[in-house]
Amino acid sequence: MNREIYENRRNGMEDKDKDTENKARNQTESAVDLMQKPEIDADRFFKLFDSSVQGLRQCRLISAAFELGVFKALEVPLSAGALAEKIGCDPALMPHFCEALHSLGLLDRFEEGISEEKENAQIAVKGTGEAEGKEKPGDEPGDRIKNDGAVYFVSELSATYLPGNSPFSQKHYLAERIRNVERWSRLPQIMRQGPDIVEKGPFFGEVVHCMAENARCGLLQETVRVVMENVDFTNVKKFLDLGGGHGLYSIALTSLNENLQAFVFDLPPVTSETRYFIDKYGASRVDIIPGDFFKDDIGSDYDVIFSSFNPGGKVPSLIPKIAAALKPEGVFITRQVPDESMKSSPLMSLDWNLWTFEDVKKGSSGYSFENSVLFSEYIDMLGNHGLEVFRALDMTDGSRIVFAWKVT
């Protein structure tokens, strides 16, 4: 901010404060003052806070429904009263609770005794008041909310992403998001005492499952397609997923190439979870290498080394190790969120800095660590170690994937 503007504004605020104190002291306010509006439009203020509170309400609603077992119970249609009795909740609150979930598209609602044609007709004329359920003359107040004739059932959206038995279940992701909300509820404490110290083992064990759930919903399929379109896998025999976590990329690629042997390198607490996914999908040609890629050997003679959202994916000191582990004409594939995207979200940067590991120093911006550089700078450095970039593509999730081959 221009210093002169700042000084003028500060002086103006001080003058206003003095005026306010004088008015309060002398009680000289007149009725005319009631007609004075704020210079700053109030809509901006109220919209900011209302949208923030609305998001919090929705988050708490979904997490409460998950904790109470609502989605599991409504795998069979139930009325609000029957649902309240089944899961042990207040019967007066349950209709409101179900209607709120229905408004988010997480529950379907059907009226007992109403034909499908009539219900479709009500939907078609939505907005006339009656179709929206507004009280009509003669209705008792609250009749619409009581909705005694309604039964509720999990919607296609919730049935896909919330039950634990769905292949696309996001139960670990939801649990992680709830923990994140709880951390933000302690923001004043964290600001005074410093970031939360997180244990690596439990953290990575949970995050691996979150990332696997997220990847299953489109990111995995898009990434495998892009990789196979830009790398000739005909002669690829040995593949390394560096910091590969869940190992789903290796599992998918070996399923598409019967001659491929893949290795997932990650910390020991992570590779124990990788083994879970290998066993789950029967991936006999995927193996694990436990270790710390900053300190330990990562192997050699790889045709392809793949690094996706790797915490060390912007640390230059790893580049010589990666280049040395590739065969001549081998390919290095790395994907990260571009720094310009991270810088555009101060809230995300704050979120990233609210917690840390005991022996690891983070960078100030999101998803960066000590000794990290800008992703664009990291890519430029590849050429210093015999890795020549031949393609860079922006993915639909906002990340960028870069392909480089080892020059002989």
Structure, explained:
This protein is globular. Helix 11 packs parallel to helix 12. A hairpin with a 5-residue loop joins strand 11 (387-394) and strand 12 (400-406). It has helices at 3-26, 42-68, 70-73, 80-87, 94-103, 116-124, 143-146, 156-161, 171-185, 187-193, 200-230, 248-256, 268-280, 319-325, 339-343, 346-353, 375-382; strands at residues 78-79, 107-111, 150-154, 196-198, 238-242, 261-266, 286-290, 302-308, 326-336, 355-357, 387-394, 400-406. The chain contains 17 helices and twelve strands. The protein starts with a helix and ends with a strand. It has two domains: 48-160, Winged helix-like DNA-binding domain superfamily/Winged helix DNA-binding domain (Arc Repressor Mutant, subunit A), CATH 1.10.10; 179-406, Rossmann fold. Mean pLDDT is 85; it is low at 114-146. With 408 residues, it is of the alpha/beta class. 48% of the residues lie in helices and 16% in strands. The strands form three sheets. Strands 7-6-5-8-9-12-11 form a seven-stranded mixed β-sheet, sandwiched between helices. The chain has a three-stranded antiparallel β-sheet with strand order 1-3-2.
